[in-house]
């Protein structure tokens, strides 16, 4: 085998070190030549690819559809008309890729934020709307009181009235009708007590507590007697868009409302002994409800409260302040309460008065009587007219005339 290739190949064992090194260097040069040849060939191929790519560019450009510059110009002019094109456009926020877990967390945070935002209910919005309208409403009022007549001479007037304005939206009106030997002292005392409490507590006026406190204080004072003397008490509070009425006795208050016709809303109802609930309380406390009786036995006059088997106290109402003896047999000093939401531009006026008005004039008659004065914005004229007509009615039906007190309150709305 060695002779076939001549001197080119020899057994490894017979080669010298110099021959081995020479052969390795020759092989290394041969490998380098082969690598250079491969590089040049690859460069030639890439040059040919570049040439072909460059040649294909014009053809591709020929297929590209160029935009309509005139159309773009018109769109730009239309979009920038009326705006300042010198302003820099807002920076575009970088698009953030949020994975499903992050997106869910973000939605939960937004939901929590929406829940934390206070949302006004429909009722709150309606109240706010009424309060805004109420600010455009002007309240005017007038009060007048007239002493009665006993058939011989003018009586001492035992009625008292009170009108208070706390601010533009808060008012108080009170009518008191005293009775008994010290009726005028009782009504005067209660008026001063009411005035003090209203000025101090009108924002949170507790009708039942204040009425009861006044009754208890009056029992302890010694300036006048209240065993057989007392008074009615009807209190009206105008607070924002609400009318509050608390009362004991038969001094009455009405609200007149106009939709198409005049209608009357009773803010109070007279506390009379014959009413079923009042009668039951009185009888349970040992009292008797009956009228006066003539010698013939015939009943006459209104129902009254009597002690069992006695001819006293004969009180013609089932609730009052004072009247200590009557209170021991069921006459109550706890007021009844009523709240009415005002209807803007429909609620016109309130009439508050002692029973000297209502004895012969009913609610609708008073409403019709006052309305012409309302249209003329004349509460004083309305008050005088009520008292004038009440006196005339007493003269037509009785020899005597009761004390008469009226308060007229007008609600005037600005356009």
Automatic annotation (TrEMBL):
It holds the Pfam family PP2C. Residues 38-51, 68-77 have a biased composition (Basic and acidic residues). One of its GO terms (molecular function) is protein serine/threonine phosphatase activity. Signal peptide: none annotated. InterPro entries: PP2C, PPM-type_phosphatase-like_dom. It comes from the Eukaryota. Residues 138-411 form the PPM-type phosphatase domain. Residues 1-91 are annotated as: Disordered. This is PPM-type phosphatase domain-containing protein.
């Amino acid at each position: 085998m060695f002779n076939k290739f001549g001197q080119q190949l020899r057994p490894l064992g017979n080669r010298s070190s110099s021959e081995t090194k020479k052969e390795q260097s020759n092989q290394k040069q041969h490998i380098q030549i082969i690598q250079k040849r491969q590089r040049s060939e690859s460069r030639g191929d890439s040059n040919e690819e570049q040439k072909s790519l460059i040649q294909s560019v014009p053809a591709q450009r020929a297929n590209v559809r160029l935009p309509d510059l005139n159309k773009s110009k018109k769109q730009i002019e239309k979009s920038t008309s009326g705006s300042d094109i010198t302003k820099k456009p807002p920076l575009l926020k970088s698009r953030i890729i949020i994975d499903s877990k992050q997106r869910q967390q973000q939605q939960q945070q937004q939901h929590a934020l929406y829940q934390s935002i206070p949302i006004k209910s429909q009722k709150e919005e309606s109240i706010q709307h009424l309060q805004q309208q109420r600010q455009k409403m002007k309240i005017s009022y007038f009060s007048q009181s007239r002493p009665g007549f006993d058939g011989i001479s003018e009586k001492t007037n035992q009625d008292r009235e009170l009108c208070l304005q706390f601010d533009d939206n808060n008012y108080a009106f009170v009518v008191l009708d005293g009775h008994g030997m010290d009726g005028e002292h009782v009504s005067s005392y209660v008026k001063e007590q009411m005035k003090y409490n209203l000025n101090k507590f009108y924002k949170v006026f507790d009708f039942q507590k204040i009425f009861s406190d006044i009754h208890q204080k009056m029992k302890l004072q010694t300036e006048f007697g209240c065993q057989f003397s007392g008074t009615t008490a009807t209190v009206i509070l105008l607070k924002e868009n609400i009318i509050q009425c608390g009362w004991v006795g038969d001094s009455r208050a009405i609200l007149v409302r106009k939709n198409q016709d005049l209608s009357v809303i009773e803010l109070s109802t007279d506390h009379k002994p014959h009413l079923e609930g009042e009668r039951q309380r009185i009888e349970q406390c040992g009292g008797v409800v009956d009228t006066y009786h003539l010698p013939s036995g015939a009943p006459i006059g209104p129902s009254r409260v009597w002690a069992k088997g006695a001819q006293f106290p004969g009180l013609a109402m089932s609730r009052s302040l004072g009247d200590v003896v009557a209170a021991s047999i069921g006459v109550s000093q706890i007021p009844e309460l009523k709240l009415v939401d005002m209807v803007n531009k429909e609620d016109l006026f309130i009439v508050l008065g002692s029973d000297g008005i209502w004895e012969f004039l009913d609610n609708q008659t008073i409403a019709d009587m006052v309305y012409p004065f309302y249209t003329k914005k004349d509460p004083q004229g309305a008050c005088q007219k009520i008292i004038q007509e009440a006196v005339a009615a007493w003269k037509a039906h009785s020899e005597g005339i009761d004390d008469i007190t009226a308060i007229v309150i007008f609600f005037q709305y600005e356009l």
